[in-house]
């Protein structure tokens, strides 16, 4: 069952889409790489192969997740632009239909993580192997192996 945010609670187990899951909607992210120092603004773009806008709910079913090393993915943004509870306001989601953006207005050291865009418009949900912020004198975002992935989400009772 979906919560108010449309997020299915459960455990994430990433699996390559080519191993048994095939989605009609494909997702692409750009740029392939960029660098930012602490305090700078960064932007990650995400494009869907078809519109994620639902005319009945009047919402875009695009979600952004952050995954820190050794941790489960954390929901940042749902419905393209709504921040999840507890997410700092430096994270902003925008866009509609096929083109979406995640902006971090002032990158902090604790933002070291993988960032995923994911569509929940159709099943199975698809997500790209994410841009990663890596730790060094500056924070670097690198696009790693851009390919569709799907999440298997066991529902909790």
UniProtKB/TrEMBL annotation:
InterPro entries linked to this entry: Ig-like_dom, Ig-like_dom_sf, Ig-like_fold, Ig_sub, Ig_V-set, IgV_Light_Chain
GO cellular component, one term: immunoglobulin complex
GO biological-process terms attached to the record: adaptive immune response
Alphabetical list of SMART domains matching this protein: IG, IGv
Alphabetically ordered keywords of this record: Adaptive immunity, Disulfide bond, Immunity, Immunoglobulin
Residues in Ig-like domain copies: 23-118
Pfam families in the cross-refs: V-set (PF07686)
PROSITE patterns on file: IG_LIKE
Keyword Phosphoprotein tagged: no
CDD domains: IgV_L_kappa
Entries under PANTHER family matching the protein: IMMUNOGLOBULIN LIGHT CHAIN (PTHR23267)
UniProt-recorded name of the protein: Ig kappa chain V-IV region
Taxonomic lineage of the native organism: Eukaryota, Metazoa, Chordata, Craniata, Vertebrata
